[in-house]
Amino acid sequence: MESFEQLAEQYKPMIHKIIHSLHLYKDKEEFYQHGLIALWEASQRFNPEKGSFTNYAYTFIRGRLLEELGKMVRANERYVCKEGEFWGTVPDWQPNRTLENEILLSYWELLTPHQQKWLLYTIHDGLSVKEIAEKEKVSVSAVKQWRMGARESCENE
Prior knowledge:
Elements: H1 4-21, H2 28-45, H3 53-79, H4 83-89, H5 97-108, H6 113-124, H7 129-136, H8 140-156
């Protein structure tokens, strides 16, 4: 039999026709690759005494693509939640803010007003050191000092 490259080039339109006839519009390249693999397997398994290679290749490739399509459908059913079903199963997630707030308040009195600002901006607003400095109209270095002082106060307690 001829080289596989020649065979692949010759049967390329057939593979594309099978993909089209099965209405495969997603992952066309992946199905084309499966079609090429099926063509190679068909060329290895073909027995010339049982008929023409073209008919055998068509049937073999089509069957293999249908198998792959079935695998993909089963995988999507098993591993992908449908949009509405998913959000109905997710419990409402609320972090335990009361415990967090109690812990922070226990250290609050140990901090200076600047350190309290740093803590509030960092924890509550999620601001960076640079953003806090811009908001308070101070240098980044000053905010870093507030942070360092707050950490030291909490560690010493």
